[in-house]
C-alpha cells in the first residue's frame, strides 16, 4: 500500500515538473515572439532603412546621420516600447480584474475605467475644462487619468460597503460604463467640428502620442505593480477556487480584493490616459495566457504580461504596414490582430479554460 | 395736411416698389443633387440647414444677409467662431435666431421647422441620407415647404457655382450670384492659366491638418479638400496615395522619407479647446508675429528633422476653415504663390480677399489668414 502511494506520489511529482517545464517553455517562446515583434517594429517603416543602418543608429547613434537617429530614437522606438508597456499593463490589469471578480468578461473596460478616461479626455478636448488646473499642456492625459481614478475609487468604496458581492461590483461597473458613455455622447453632441474630430480620434487610441516620458511612466507602474502581484501570487490563485476555499486557506479575501482593485486601477488608468482607449487587449491578453499556461498565477501573471505586450506590439507593426506611410488607429487594428488568434485558440482548445 | 398726403403717397409708392419685384412667382429649379424643386421666389423666410450657408447668403446681400433667415443650425459658432463673432458684433439679433443643434446627425427637428413657417429649407448635401431616412421631404411637402440641397463641402470645386446660382434664384439676386461666380472663377483662372502655360515642376507638399492641436504628429488630407487645393495650386499632395479617404494620419517617419519641398500647416485660434496649445493661431485679425513664432516651434518636431521644406524655410500656415468655405479660391491663390513664387510675383491673394470683402461681404476685411517662414 505504502509503496503504491509512494510511486503515485513520485509519478505526480514527475507530471508536475513536466507541466511546469512545459509552461516555462511556452513563456520562453512567447518572449522570443515578443522580441521578434519589437525588432520588426524597430526595423520597418516608410523610410525603408536597411537593417545595417538601423543597427548602426541603435548601437552607434553618434555616427549615424541626424535624420536616421531621430527616426530610430524619437519616432520608432517610443512607439515600439509604448506598445510593449501599454499592452503589458492593460493585459495584467485585465488578468487580475478577472481573477478578483471571478468573471471571464471583466477587463479595465467592464468597470468603466476606460469610459471614464474617455470622458475626461473629451471634457478637455471639447470644453477646455481641466479637472486639475495646473499644467494645461498635459490637460488631456491628466483629465483622463483623474476621471479613470475617480471611477475606480467609486467602485473601490462601493465594494467596501457591507453586503456588496462580486456580482454587484460588476453591475456597478457596467452602470458606470453607460453613464460615462452617455456623458461622452452629450459632449460630442455639443462639440465643435474640430473638437469632435479630436475626441473621435482619441477614443480610437493611437500610439503616435508616444514619448519617452510616457514610456518611462508606464514602465515604472509595471515595475512597481507586477512584483506586488507576484507576492500575492498563491493567494490570487487560491481566490480562483472560490472565496470560501481561499478564506479557509488563510487568505484575507476582502483585503486582497480591495488591494488588487486599487493596483489594477493604476495599471489601467495610466496607459489609457496616454494612448487613448485601446480595447480588447485587457480582455484577450489574459484569456490567451490562461489558455496556454493555465490558471496558476506564477505562470499566468508573466504569461499575461507577455501576451498583452506581444499582441499590442504586433498590432503596432500591422497598423503601420497595412497602408504604408499611413497610421491606422490602433484601437481598430487591435481587434483585427487579436480576434482571429483568439478564435483559433478557443476552437482548438475546447477544454474549459475558465 | 398736404404734406401728410404727399408722404402717404410716397410711402405707398415705396411699398409698391418693394413689393413689386417680390410678387411671388413660382419657379422650378434644379438643386445640386439634380432634384427639380418648385419654389415661390423670392423667398422671405429661409431656414439654413447648416449655419455656414451664411457664407453664401453674405455674398448675396452686403447689407443684411440675415434679413430673411428665420432659423439655422448652430454650427457656425462651433466650426468658425471668429466669423460668428464678427457677424454677431454687426448683427446682434442673430443671437436670438432659433437654432437646430447637433453636429453629428446632420438633421433637424421637423416640428420646430414647420412652426417657423419658412418658404424654403436649405440643406447641405452631407445631410441628404439623414434627411431622406427621416422622410422629411415628403412630410415638408405636405405643409408646402420645399427643401433644396446645396453643397460647398463634399465637392466644393464642382458644386460651389450651382449652389450659388440656386441661392441667387431663391433670394432674387441672380445678378449678384453671377458676379460672385465670375469673380471666383476668374480668381482661380489666374492661377490655373499660368500653371497650364508655364507647366512648372510641381513641388511635393505636405499639408498638416491642425498641426499642434494635439501631441500627435501628422494628421493630413487625402485627395480631397486641402489635398485637392494643393494640386490645383500646382503642387503634389504628399499624402494623396497614402490616405485613402479625405482625412487620415500619416506616419511621422513618412514625412522624413518623402522629404517634401513645402509644408503647409492649417491653424486657427483654438484657445477655447486647447488653451496654451502649440497650434498656429491664424484667422480673422490674427497676431501674425505670434503665429510665426508658433509655426517655427512646430518645425522642431521629430517628424520635420532635416526635411527640405524646413531647411529652405518653405513652411507656411493657413487658416484651417478654408477647408469648407466658399472663399477657398483665395487660399488657392496663396498656396500657388507659396509653391511658385516666381510665377506668381504679381498675384496678390490679400488683395483678392480684400476685394471679395469690399464687393460682396458685409464684414470689413482684416488680414491674418496666412503666415510663412519664408521672407521678412
Unreliable parts of chain B: 13-20
User: What letter string, H or E per element, gives the SSE order of chain B?
Assistant: HEEEHEHHEHEHHEHHEEHEEHEHHEHHE
The biggest sheet of chain A amounts to: none
Q: Which radius of gyration of chain A do the C-alpha atoms yield?
A: 22 Å
Secondary-structure class of chain B: alpha/beta
**What's the quaternary structure here?**
heterodimer
The side-by-side strand order for the widest beta sheet of chain B comes to: 5-4-3-6-7
Question: Helix segment count of chain A?
Answer: 14
Largest interface, chains and sizes:
A-B, 44 and 46 residues
User: In angstroms, what separates the terminal alpha carbons of chain A?
Assistant: 36 Å
Individual helix count of chain B: 15
User: What portion of residues of chain B belong to β-strands?
Assistant: 15-25%
Structural class of chain A: mainly alpha
Strand proportion of chain A, as a percent range, falls in under 5%
Shape descriptor of chain A reads: globular
Q: Short summary of the structure?
A:
Chain A is mainly alpha-helical and 354 residues long.
Amino acid at each position: 500500500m505504502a509503496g503504491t502511494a509512494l510511486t503515485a506520489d513520485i509519478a505526480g511529482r514527475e507530471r508536475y515538473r513536466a507541466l511546469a517545464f512545459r509552461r516555462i517553455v511556452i513563456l520562453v517562446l512567447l518572449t522570443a515572439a515578443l522580441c521578434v515583434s519589437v525588432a520588426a517594429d524597430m526595423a520597418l517603416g516608410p523610410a525603408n532603412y536597411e537593417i545595417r543602418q538601423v543597427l548602426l543608429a541603435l548601437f552607434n547613434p553618434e555616427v549615424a546621420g541626424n535624420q536616421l537617429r531621430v527616426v530610430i530614437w524619437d519616432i520608432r522606438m517610443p512607439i515600439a516600447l509604448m506598445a510593449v508597456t501599454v499592452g503589458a499593463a492593460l493585459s495584467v490589469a485585465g488578468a487580475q480584474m478577472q481573477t478578483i471578480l471571478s468573471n471571464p468578461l471583466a477587463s479595465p473596460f467592464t468597470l468603466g475605467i476606460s469610459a471614464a478616461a474617455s470622458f475626461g479626455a473629451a471634457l478637455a478636448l471639447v470644453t477646455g475644462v481641466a479637472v486639475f488646473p495646473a499644467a494645461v499642456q498635459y490637460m488631456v492625459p491628466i483629465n483622463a487619468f483623474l476621471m479613470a481614478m475617480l471611477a475606480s475609487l467609486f467602485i473601490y468604496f462601493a465594494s467596501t460597503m457591507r453586503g456588496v458581492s462580486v456580482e454587484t461590483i460588476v453591475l456597478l461597473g457596467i452602470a458606470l460604463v453607460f453613464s460615462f458613455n452617455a456623458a461622452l455622447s452629450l459632449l460630442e453632441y455639443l462639440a465643435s467640428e474640430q473638437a469632435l474630430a479630436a475626441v473621435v480620434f482619441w477614443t480610437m487610441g493611437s500610439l503616435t502620442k508616444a514619448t519617452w516620458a510616457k514610456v518611462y511612466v508606464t514602465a515604472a507602474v509595471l515595475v512597481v505593480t507586477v512584483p506586488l502581484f507576484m507576492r500575492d501570487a498563491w493567494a490570487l490563485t487560491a481566490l480562483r477556487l472560490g472565496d470560501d476555499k481561499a478564506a479557509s486557506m488563510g487568505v484575507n479575501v476582502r483585503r486582497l480584493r480591495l488591494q488588487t482593485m486599487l493596483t489594477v486601477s493604476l495599471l489601467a488608468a495610466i496607459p489609457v490616459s496616454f494612448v487613448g482607449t485601446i480595447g480588447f487587449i485587457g480582455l484577450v491578453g489574459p484569456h490567451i495566457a490562461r489558455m496556454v499556461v493555465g490558471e496558476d498565477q506564477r505562470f499566468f501573471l508573466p504569461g499575461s504580461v507577455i501576451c498583452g505586450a506581444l499582441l499590442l506590439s504586433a498590432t503596432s507593426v500591422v497598423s503601420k504596414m497595412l497602408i504604408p506611410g499611413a497610421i491606422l488607429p490602433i484601437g481598430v487594428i487591435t481587434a483585427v490582430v487579436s480576434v482571429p488568434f483568439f478564435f483559433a485558440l478557443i476552437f482548438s482548445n475546447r477544454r474549459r479554460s475558465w | 395736411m398736404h404734406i401728410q398726403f404727399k408722404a402717404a403717397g410716397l410711402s405707398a409708392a415705396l411699398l409698391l416698389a418693394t413689393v413689386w419685384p417680390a410678387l411671388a412667382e413660382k419657379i422650378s429649379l434644379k438643386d445640386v443633387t439634380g432634384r427639380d424643386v418648385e419654389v415661390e421666389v423670392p423667398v422671405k423666410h429661409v431656414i439654413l440647414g447648416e449655419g455656414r450657408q451664411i457664407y453664401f447668403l453674405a455674398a448675396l446681400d452686403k447689407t443684411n444677409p440675415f434679413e430673411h433667415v428665420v432659423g439655422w443650425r448652430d454650427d457656425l459658432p462651433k466650426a468658425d467662431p471668429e466669423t460668428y463673432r464678427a457677424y454677431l458684433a454687426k448683427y446682434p439679433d442673430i443671437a436670438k435666431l432659433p437654432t437646430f443643434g447637433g453636429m453629428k446627425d446632420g438633421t433637424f427637428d421637423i416640428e420646430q421647422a414647420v412652426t417657423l413657417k419658412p418658404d424654403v429649407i436649405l440643406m447641405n448635401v452631407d445631410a441628404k441620407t439623414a434627411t431622406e431616412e427621416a422622410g422629411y421631404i415628403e412630410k415638408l411637402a405636405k405643409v408646402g415647404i420645399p427643401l433644396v440641397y446645396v453643397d460647398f463641402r463634399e465637392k466644393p470645386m464642382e458644386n460651389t457655382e450651382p449652389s450659388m446660382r440656386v441661392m441667387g434664384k431663391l433670394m432674387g439676386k441672380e445678378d449678384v450670384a453671377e458676379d460672385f461666380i465670375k469673380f471666383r472663377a476668374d480668381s482661380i483662372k489666374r492661377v490655373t492659366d499660368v500653371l497650364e502655360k508655364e507647366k512648372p515642376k510641381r513641388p511635393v507638399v505636405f499639408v498638416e491638418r491642425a498641426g499642434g492641436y494635439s501631441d500627435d504628429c501628422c494628421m493630413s488630407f487625402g485627395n480631397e479638400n486641402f489635398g485637392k487645393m494643393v494640386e490645383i495650386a500646382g503642387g503634389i499632395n504628399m499624402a494623396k496615395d497614402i490616405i485613402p479617404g479625405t482625412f487620415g494620419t500619416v506616419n511621422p517617419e513618412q514625412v522624413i522619407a518623402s522629404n517634401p519641398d513645402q509644408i503647409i500647416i492649417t491653424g486657427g485660434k483654438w484657445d477655447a479647446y486647447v488653451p496654451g496649445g502649440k497650434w498656429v493661431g491664424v484667422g480673422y485679425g490674427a497676431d501674425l508675429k505670434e503665429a510665426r513664432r508658433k509655426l517655427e516651434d512646430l518645425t522642431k518636431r521629430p517628424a520635420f528633422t532635416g526635411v527640405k521644406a524646413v531647411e529652405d524655410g518653405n513652411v507656411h500656415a493657413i487658416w484651417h476653415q478654408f477647408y469648407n468655405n466658399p472663399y477657398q479660391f483665395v487660399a488657392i491663390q496663396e498656396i500657388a504663390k507659396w509653391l511658385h513664387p516666381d510665377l506668381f510675383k504679381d498675384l496678390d491673394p490679400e488683395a483678392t480677399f480684400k476685394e471679395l470683402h469690399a464687393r460682396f461681404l458685409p464684414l470689413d476685411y482684416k488680414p491674418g489668414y496666412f503666415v510663412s517662414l519664408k521672407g521678412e
